[in-house]
């Protein structure tokens, strides 16, 4: 790394620390005052030790008598200093600890808050393991230097006070300090420059290991059934080895630096003893002065290390902070209006000349127009990849179209407030997601107004009431992580019940009942049509029986609406539709 780049890391690291101090000023002040007091007490202690040697111990040797009064005074002073040191360490640790953990909690909340508000397109570009690492180890890395920061600030105060006291004691001994202290700073800077690329690499590898581990766990079933355990272990092992090597590189440098940092003050002590003996002989200073300064240099080593800890952590902090900031500054949020949807009952959904592509990719939807009239069920039918799921995502505004408009009851989706949209429209996705909670918790999601009666009604509509009644604890049954204790069809019905419990006015089912028996699927759609709380339904359907239940069919080919009408009409007039639905039917019979 060039010296310019390392200066940049140092400057940026100091700016990150400045941000931390501005965020938690009171805790920083508590820690810094505690630490400064600690540093001043170290100096005071050195001078008391020198004074005791010079004015109590040496005279006692000379006179063969001990001045008991003075001894008691010395004991009282040492006790006082020790008491104050306990208080100062307490203040320093309290301030630093609270500051560090509060910052970590604040930024963990901020990062996960951003995850929830960023659009699906952003999530598709970022591996889940990386997101975990951003919210966890990157936040920890960013605030790593906070733990020793107040100590380092107090150490700087201590070094300034030490320089003043040294010059007041003797200018020759002060020169040793004037040489040693800048050398300690210089060593710290060299350390930071060398450490920077190693720390950044280690932090990147932590993120990589987390991402690969997450993918391995997620795909555990595939790995096992395909007999790829050894290959997957090898793939993971490569990253683990790289992380190990990068951490060893960090440790090796630290191992070299720590003894150097320890030895410099010892060399200072040696210089003080040699120069002090000469100054003592010439009568310029007394025994007390030499002992005080020598003792000061021996106790300096430990606090000065705090500066090294902060400086050494800065590169990792900058690397973590950059990754955290990348999440916090990510763009692409959908802007919401403040519109509401007046009225009640089933809502009308209208797509008007909608075009859409994913990022810079090819156009997926071409001038798609159709309407789901209020209270009606419309089936979206089309070959795989024709754009059905994309339309489902657009209908509940997970993404916005490139051009054209989508509206509910005449209000364009971007004009609606988030709460108005979430209250009116619900999507049940292809792949159901079940939280590690009870059946009740999964359906109610703590939404106001979703009481047990609403949960039971929703379960009945989703044809899930009977299987839930058969669970060991009914609504209180815990379903396990991702609903592992349930079958695929049961998970789908729970997810459907969750959507229904919010009494949506528009329900979008994206192949949401694929794992459910066809008769149960027909019963679900039948119940939805008969229910008092009827919603308009847009359903992505593959089964002939389901399609036939819809009031209308919108038939898609390669992102274009090529026909709309009833199932009977399309079967009569559209050869492509006829072929597709007949193929679905054949496949069903073969199952
Ligand atoms: N996140 C994405 N990024 C880029 N392209 C995508 C993304 N999601 C879908 N596509 C592409 O958009 C097209 C339409 O996909 P979509 O999932 O909407 O089709 P579908 O009709 O629902 O398919 P299926 O019946 O197989 O679920 C496909 O060509 C697909 O490759």
TrEMBL record:
Main location: membrane
Residues spanning the membrane: 27-51, 71-90, 146-165, 171-191, 284-307
Cellular localization per UniProt: Cell inner membrane
Superkingdom of the organism of origin: Bacteria
Stored SMART domains: AAA
GO cellular component, one term: plasma membrane
Domain ABC transmembrane type-1, first and last residues per copy: 29-316
Gene Ontology molecular function: any one: ATPase-coupled lipid transmembrane transporter activity
Domain ABC transporter: 349-583
PANTHER family recorded: ATP-BINDING CASSETTE SUB-FAMILY B (PTHR24221), ATP-BINDING CASSETTE SUB-FAMILY B MEMBER 6 (PTHR24221:SF654)
Family the entry assigns: Belongs to the ABC transporter superfamily. Siderophore-Fe(3+) uptake transporter (SIUT) (TC 3.A.1.21) family.
Name listed for the protein in its UniProt record: ABC transporter permease
Protein species of origin: Actinoplanes awajinensis subsp. mycoplanecinus
